[in-house]
Amino acid sequence: MYLNFFNVRKAALSLIFFWIFLSSNAQTTAIDSLTAALQKATDDESILSIKVQLAWEYYDVENQKSLKYSEEAYGLAIALGDTAKMVRSGRLMGQLLRKAERMDEALKILTKLSPIAKRNGLKDDYKKILNAIANAYALKADYDKALDYNFQSLIVREADGDKAEISVTLNNIGFVYFKLRNYELAAEYYKRSLSLKRESNDTYDLDRLLINLGLCYNQMKGDESKFLRAQDHINEALRVCGDKCSDYIRIEANFGLGTSFFGQKKWKESDKHFQESLSIARKLKDNRWQAENLVYIGKIYTELEDFDRAKSSLFEALGFAKGSGYNQLLMDIYKQSSKLFNQLEDFENAAHYQQQYIQLKDSLISEELVKNIARIQTNFEERENIATIAANQKVIKQQRDLSILSAVVAILAGLLILVLQRSNRTIKRVNAQLSEAKEVIQEQNQLLENKNKYLDKEVETKTEDLERANQSLKQVNDELDNFIYKTSHDIRGPLASLKGMCNVALMDVNDPTALDYLKKLDSTAERLNTILTRLLIINQINNSKLSVSKIDFTSIVHDVMLLEKKKGLPQKLSFKKNIDEFASIQSDKELVRIVLENLIDNAIKFYNDSERVDSFVEVAVQSCEGNQVKVRVIDNGIGISESNPGKLFRMFFRASERSETGGIGLYIVKTATAKLGGKVGLLTTPEGFTEFYVVFPQVPPSPDDGHEKPSIY
Questions:
Q1: What is the pLDDT of residue 15?
Q2: Which DSSP string do the residues of 376-400 spell out, in sequence order?
Q3: Other beta carbons within 10 Å of 418
Q4: Residue at 393 is within a domain
Q5: Which phi-psi region, left, alpha or beta, contains residue 616 (left: φ > 0; alpha: ψ -120 to 50)?
Q6: Fewer CB within 10 Å: C terminus or N terminus of the chain?
Q7: Cα separation, 122 vs 85, whole angstroms
């Protein structure tokens, strides 16, 4: 069972955000930028702001560093008297201390911050602090305090009317009742939470809520159908997150399925799911979930009479639970250990664990706890009853006001009749005046009609002028295409002669200086030849007619890589392919090949030549929405800025000195993609790699579609 922790949304970097380029021109992370800024900061306010941001950046990445920065920021905020940053950094400290299973320290700082946040109007922080306190108390098995803080949170959130936030708190209340073994009431709160999520189309933590409801059905009374309902909810949760399920969701889902199969006495299936959940919990070093799974594994081995493995599992679970303050878990471990030793007829140990269980249960589920929970429930229900009475009184007052209003309306109606009789005479006089005004309006309408006719003629004239201008522009474009085509062909002949003479001269000349000049001249001629070839490709793209057929991306990528290998690949550069065999479109094969060839060639050309980097180029082809296909070319090369990606796709724009074709390659990609009706763009992956992507439509547009140029992101 997992508690629905409050949603932490990392704040955007608002103070400092800049890039530092290393010798390899690789982009640094936000953490590097903030660390560099911290070293340069001199005033306490800047240092405080940067440390708060660093604490949030490290959160769930390196929690020890996050805790260090949050503690430093908290102390500095107190010294400066900055209440908002004190609450924000302190709230993060509380969360991290709870994650580190230092519950008492977490509660100490969170309960201190709660009234401060409320008093200073920091409403969002106040709500999250209430949830955090409630969650910590629930994990400590202080259920009356957990319920009290959850109800306080619910009152605040209901006043705001945010269904998504109300849903979170209802789920947390359900968790408390689950731990109190009031499964019917827990299920009621879970269902209310689920209903609100579906009303507001809120998917945040929907998977976890469905798992919680499944765990609840596992424990409720009834026939075996309850276990099937539990499995349905848990499997629905896994469908909700799909291949993006977090490790904790996988822990909880496998735990829930294991519990369900355990209830059906299907020991093999149950053990399989508990072992999977335990494996992930071990990887995350999560003490609570390791203990939860080990308790059930101990139960399974007890049922199978494999007592050595049962003892081993329970003793390991005891070690995790004792050091973490999870009292409810300790109770379960003591109870199961007593049962195990009874079966082994080791009555001394059985009595010892039974006594431990009774003592802990008496301290947790005491008469005072029951009274406190009853009082908290009563107070909350009274608040709801008072609200209902107030609403009814409001309705009664509205009805009384409506009766008075009806009487007033009747009086006014009588007065209105008198007024209408008197005004009738006035209306007749007004009608006469209106008749005169109507004649004037008709005259004005005639003048307006004449003016409109004149304007229509003007519009018609301007339209003809525009059509002539468009025709002239088309003629100029055709002449330009023809000029590029003829010029490219005319230049290539002399250029070929020049390269031939260079090659002959390179064989005959022995002077080193002359040889160097001739090599540079030959290289320049080769680059010019490449540029002319690409200009001809652009002309070909603009004037070609699409030949539509089924596209085999695997074959095209294979052919492009053969071509690149002939041209010569850099050393230590690896090539990866990830092509979805079901990704299929109908398009022009040659244009698709041109797009892929230029993107792959571009990625190889700008590879990272540092010896410390294992350079790679990855081509991924996958289906996406609307039967489209998305092609991604990813590399860890020298990198490129996303500040104005549109420039990259302009003709002759060069992003690096390595560009040998004058910046035409990406322009060809954009032109070919536009011809096919697709989209092309650039982004940086979370790992800091460069990614160019192209989205191809299922079928390219016909020439009459008038499709727009591709979007550049």
A1: 32
A2: HHHHHHHHHHHHHHHHHHHHHHHHH
A3: 9
A4: no
A5: beta
A6: C
A7: 11
Residue 58, pLDDT score: 87
Tokens 């095209």 appear where?
Answer: 556
The predicted pLDDT at position 260 comes to: 92
For residues 153 and 134, give the distance between their C-alpha atoms in angstroms, rounded to a whole number: 9
In whole angstroms, how large is the CA radius of gyration of the chain? 37
Alpha helices in 544-588 (DSSP H): 553-567
Q: Which two tokens stand for residue 710?
A: 């591709």
Contact 267, 229 (CB under 8 A): no
Instruction: Give the pLDDT score at 630.
Output: 92
Residue with tokens 């993609």, as numbered in its chain: 673
Query: For the residues of 605-651, what is the DSSP string, one character each?
Result: HT----TTS--EEEEEEEEEGGGEEEEEEEE-SS----SSGGGGGST
For 710, which DSSP code?
P
Q: Hunting for tokens 């064989």 — which residue is that?
A: 507
What's the CA gap between 668 and 650, in Å, rounded? 9
Q: Side chain identity at 300, as an amino acid letter?
A: I
Spatial distance between the Cα atoms of 692 and 680, rounded to a whole number of angstroms: 7
Within a 10 A sphere around the Cβ of 268, how many other Cβ atoms?
A: 9
pLDDT for the residue 712: 44
CA angle (212 as vertex; 208, 218 as ends), nearest 5: 140
The CATH number of whichever domain residue 668 belongs to comes to 3.30.565.10
Q: What residue ranges of the chain have pLDDT lower than 70? A: 1-28, 323-325, 364-397, 474-486, 488-489, 492, 523, 526-527, 530, 534, 540, 641-648, 651-663, 703-713
Nearest Cα neighbor of 286 from 51, 104, 99 is: 99
pLDDT of residue 16: 30
Separation CA 260–CA 227 (nearest Å): 5
**pLDDT, position 482:** 67
Which residues are bridge partners to 412 per DSSP? none
User: Starting from the edge strand earliest in sequence, which strands make up the sheet with 690-696, in order?
Assistant: 574-579, 616-624, 628-635, 690-696, 679-684
Q: Give the model's pLDDT for residue 583.
A: 87
Number of domains in the chain: 1
SS3 letters for 654-670?
A: CCCCCCCCCCCHHHHHH
Calpha distance 562→556 (Å, rounded): 10
**Does any domain span residue 652?**
yes
Q: Provide the 10 A C-beta neighbour count for residue 553.
A: 22
What domain range is 685 assigned to?
544-696
Q: What is the DSSP letter of 711?
A: P
DSSP classification of residue 242: G
Give me the amino acid identity at 97. L
Neighbours of 457 (CB within 10 A): 10
Q: Match 């709660």 to its residue by tokens.
A: 114
Burial 52-64 (b: 16+ CB within 10 A, else e): bbbbbbbbeeeee
Element (H, E) at 579: strand 574-579
Can you give the three-state secondary structure of 148-179, one letter per residue? HHHHHHHHHHHHHCCHHHHHHHHHHHHHHHHH
Location of structure tokens 């369900």: 260
User: What is the tens place of the pLDDT at every residue in 420-459?
Assistant: 877 777 787 777 788 777 888 888 888 888 888 888 888 8
Asked, for residue 689, whether it belongs to a domain, the answer is: yes
Cα-based angle 557, 558, 559 (whole degrees, multiple of 5):
90
HEC string for 516-549: HHHHHHHHHHHHHHHHHHHHHHHHHHHHCCCCEE
Q: Is residue 650 part of a domain?
A: yes
Segment holding 23, helix H or strand E: none
